[in-house]
Automatic annotation (TrEMBL):
This is Aminotransferase class I/II-fold pyridoxal phosphate-dependent enzyme. Keywords: Aminotransferase, Coiled coil, Transferase. It comes from Faecalibacterium hominis (ex Afrizal et al. 2022). Transmembrane segments: none annotated. It holds the Pfam family Asp_aminotransf. GO terms for molecular function: transaminase activity. The keyword Transcription does not apply. The lineage of its organism: Bacteria, Bacillati, Bacillota, Clostridia, Eubacteriales.
Length: 427
């Protein structure tokens, strides 16, 4: 295989014909593969079936978990999540089966009522804005888009969002009300914010007194290597600067036990806790404490969580390796037509193809039975200005399927790049 960027028209045309033959073989396989969403595979969920054996409903305090009460969560569940977050139990709110719903609820509270520091509810801020590190998580962006925020892209780096840009924007503009962050093994690049980024997040001056950091620790224990990466805890760091009310941390067991039937949590200051409990108490009497108790009995503590995640890791490593091996064997020899991330945790690999090709790659894959997350979906308004990024989720399919999907994906990348190069040469 030769470098596509050095090929002339005839060579590219011959290579395209070869690739078309390969593509046809995949077409004939009538594939139905999906590397779109970050979902655990059935084998991973099987690992948590023991949870259903935990049918005890008497809490450590002797109360009955079947009944109403404890809006902020069962004490033992708060202790478990405090251990995972690295904060105090009184700073933890344990909710229902979705952290995304908690994020939505908090944006809604800001919109309808504001926070204690708010000059007015966010709904009354005409040109309200939210910072979105890109590429990022489409469902985060969708929440703030739904509530009428203008989504401002901030470029990601391997150390987190570009903090020079973040600091400048938030210092100047009091209509910027917050930022979305996935600080550990970010969705989709798999980057972990550096200690310096976390410190700057805690201490930056914000023009808005009610600026909030939505710090989504969705992948806090989702290590893909033996290295257990731990970073400073934003809530604790922010106390050094008196900014703890700007921090809302989130996590859930969606990718530890069962997505959709797990337990979610918030970590925030004690002041914020009082405020959100007051608001939430109008919405709900208490969350599913039987499920909270089952999770505590099953996972026990952070050590138990990490031991459980090690079982996930054994299944996930081969799937991630299969994608990266295909990329380096098939794409690297073609020259600088694509690059990709090498995450140490989380659920995704970012593939960056030659600008102007991502949509075409996704389309070629789809026509051949491989669904990817729509090109551009990791950017506000689904618009990747470079049309370069594709988010690859290797967790759900079986290893065989991941291997087939990766091979097909490489053929589609090469085809899309050649089409683009040929089109450029024709101009
Ligand atoms: N945050 C991030 C960054 C995610 O990737 C996901 C799931 N893909 C979620 C939140 C959703 O979490 P939950 O199931 O707790 O709502």
């Amino acid at each position: 295989m030769a470098n596509y960027l050095e090929m002339n028209r005839e060579e590219l045309t011959a290579e395209k014909a070869k690739l078309n033959e390969q593509y046809k073989k995949f077409l004939a396989m009538n594939l139905k593969l999906n590397m779109a969403r970050g979902k655990p595979g059935p084998h991973q969920m099987d690992l948590a079936m023991g949870l259903l054996q935990m049918n005890d409903y008497t809490t450590d305090a002797g109360t009955d978990a079947r009944n109403y009460g404890d809006l902020e969560g069962l004490h033992e569940a708060r202790v478990l999540f405090a251990d995972v977050f690295g904060v105090k139990p009184e700073e933890v709110f344990v909710g229902g089966n979705s952290s995304l719903q908690l994020m939505y609820n908090l944006i809604n509270i800001g919109y309808v009522f504001g926070f204690p520091e708010s000059p007015c509810p966010w709904s009354q801020v005409e040109k309200r804005k939210f910072l979105c590190p890109v590429p990022g998580y489409d469902r985060h962006f969708a929440i703030t888009e739904e509530y009428g925020f203008e989504l401002i892209s901030v470029p990601m780096t391997p150390n987190g969002p570009d903090m020079d840009i973040v600091e400048k924007l938030v210092a100047e503009d009091d209509t910027i009300k917050g930022i979305w962050c996935v600080p550990q093994y970010s969705n989709p690049d798999g980057y972990t914010y550096s200690d310096e980024t976390i410190d700057r997040m805690a201490k930056m001056k914000t023009a808005a007194p009610d600026f909030k950091i939505f710090w989504d620790e969705a992948y806090i224990v989702h290590h893909l290597t033996e290295e257990i990466i731990e970073t400073p805890v934003l809530l604790n760091e922010s106390k050094k600067y008196g900014t703890e009310n700007r921090v809302f941390m989130f996590t859930s067991t969606s990718k530890i036990t069962f997505p959709g039937a797990g337990v979610s949590a918030i970590a925030c200051s004690v002041d914020s806790m009082k405020y959100i409990c007051k608001r939430f108490s109008v919405m709900i009497i208490s969350y599913d404490k039987m499920n909270q108790l089952r999770h505590v009995r099953f996972l026990k503590n952070k050590e138990g969580v990490l031991a459980h995640m090690a079982k996930h890791r054994r299944r996930l490593i081969p799937c991630f390796d299969a994608v990266k091996t295909a990329f380096s064997e098939e794409l690297t020899p073609c020259g600088d037509i694509a690059h990709w991330t090498n995450p140490k945790g989380g659920y995704f690999i970012s593939l960056y193809v030659m600008p102007g090709c991502a949509k075409r790659v996704a389309q070629l894959c789809k026509e051949c039975g491989l669904t990817l997350t729509g090109a551009g979906s990791a950017y506000p308004y689904h618009k990747d200005p470079q049309d370069s990024h594709l988010r690859i989720a290797p967790t759900y399919p079986s290893l065989d399927e991941v291997e087939t999907a990766s091979d097909l994906l490489c053929v589609c990348v090469k085809l899309a790049v050649i089409e683009k190069l040929l089109a450029e040469k024709a101009e």
